[in-house]
Amino acid sequence: MCGRFALTLPVDRLRELFGFRQLPNLTERWNIAPTQAVLAVRQEPDGPAAFPARWGLIPSWSKDPSIGAKLINARAETVREKPSFKTAFQRRRCLIPADSFYEWKTLHGIKQPYRIRFEDDGPFAFAGLWERWLGADGSDVDTCSIVTTDANEILSPLHHRMPVILDSNGFQTWLTGPQNDAADLMRPYQGPRRLTYYPISRKLNDVRNDDASVWEEAPLPMEPEPAAQPKKLADDQLSLF
């Protein structure tokens, strides 16, 4: 799955990679969480366009916007059939830029976060879906979800799922290609770049911590020392008389 990620790179570098002409007002984000606004890229008649979207897809037919908090991820295996996602997959695919994402693993009863990135520290894109939901006040709300698949051999020790990661040669196919071609991209990452990860500060667990300190490498939780056993008394010590 994907429950947190980061985007800290300059907008000019993102424009160069994704080809959008706008100049979004971006700030460095180390701890992007569900229901927050994220940068996304979709295809428009004059080319790729950057736009803000709330992370957590709200289907256009939904009466309750709170459903978005449950739809931050879309499973690749069911995205073409599930009512919440199938229309978005057919018509509204998007790219969600990132430069890191996070996963947790329980060690000795403690949930330890890890930062996952490419060895070159460069940007990449999650395969995303977007929808436009009409609010009760008549306002339009653009929302999005990140597509997930089975973990590859590098990430499987952390978790059995991972986001679908696209290299630049797959961007246009995902945005505008036929459905079958887009579906072929929804697989564990096996591209030319290499993913890596390391344990980081548990400050990441609090979404209010949104600065570079969450990337600090942290020691792994230690196995607790076994409880001391009471000394066994000799038989002559058990007698009161």
From TrEMBL:
Sorted UniProt keywords = Covalent protein-DNA linkage, DNA damage, DNA-binding, Hydrolase, Lyase, Protease
Q: Which Gene3D superfamilies match?
A: SOS response associated peptidase-like
Q: What is its EC number?
A: 3.4.-.-
Pfam families per UniProt = SRAP
InterPro entries the record matches = SRAP, SRAP-like
A Gene Ontology molecular function term for this protein is:
single-stranded DNA binding
Would the keyword Hydrolase turn up in this protein's UniProt record? yes
Hydrolase listed as a keyword: yes
First-tier enzyme category under EC: hydrolase
* One GO-annotated biological process of the protein: protein-DNA covalent cross-linking repair
Provide the residue span(s) of the region labelled Disordered.
220-241
Instruction: Return the PANTHER family for the record.
Output: ABASIC SITE PROCESSING PROTEIN HMCES, DC12-RELATED
Report the family membership.
Answer: Belongs to the SOS response-associated peptidase family.
In its UniProt entry, what is this protein called? Answer: Abasic site processing protein
User: Which species expresses this protein natively?
Assistant: Pacificispira spongiicola
Top-down, what is the taxonomic lineage of the species of origin?
Answer: Bacteria, Pseudomonadati, Pseudomonadota, Alphaproteobacteria, Rhodospirillales
